[in-house]
Amino acid sequence: MGDEGTDTEETQKELDELERQLIEMGNMVESLFADSVVALMENDWGAETELREEDYRAHEWWLKIDKLCVDLLCNRKLNADQVRFVSATIKIASALKRTADQSLHIGETIRSFELESLPDAGSLAPVASMVELTQNMLGDVIEALVNHNAQEAAGLHLVFRELASLDARAVDELGDAMLNGRVPVHLGTGFVRAVQRLQHVGNEVLDIANQLCHVYGRGPQQ
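^ thats the sequence. predicted structure below, dont judge the formating
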């Protein structure tokens, strides 16, 4: 009984450490996303090297989490709830890794700008709205992870619908701006690519939200 109790305690310590690492990765990716969209909206060429370094750190963190998950599944006697948590962690960490990759690509969009000044604020207003909404979604899902809040995670489905609507509006308005000459074509297409990547980040946030709903009691939404 004593050995079994010790093993249970060690397992719980490892699970707590796994959750800590997942939250830290979430904070890391949230910071990378924020830096990438600042680089995009301010045409900051100098940020690209730092963004690459942040993306590399997120990738390394994902590998650490994956290894710990495999060790727990293979070497520990987990109950059903613990298996569910570890399985969800694998999926959440993978979604965070993909979010980091998308964030890096958003920052790299500035390559297409050729050091030109950005279009007027009116032409980029839908993009700026998408940036803000996506950043809020990412922050909210990390907060839901920290607080084990399935209700907050589930609420992100409604926010995602707003993001999808903004995506269509941003692409349409950028297209009009390019046709009317308010935005150079190469700049406009660069921002369209960034908009598509913001939508991808929204999809990843939704995947994370579904996993949190599954683990903390509500089941994924359709």
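Confidence is low (pLDDT under 50) at residues 218-222.
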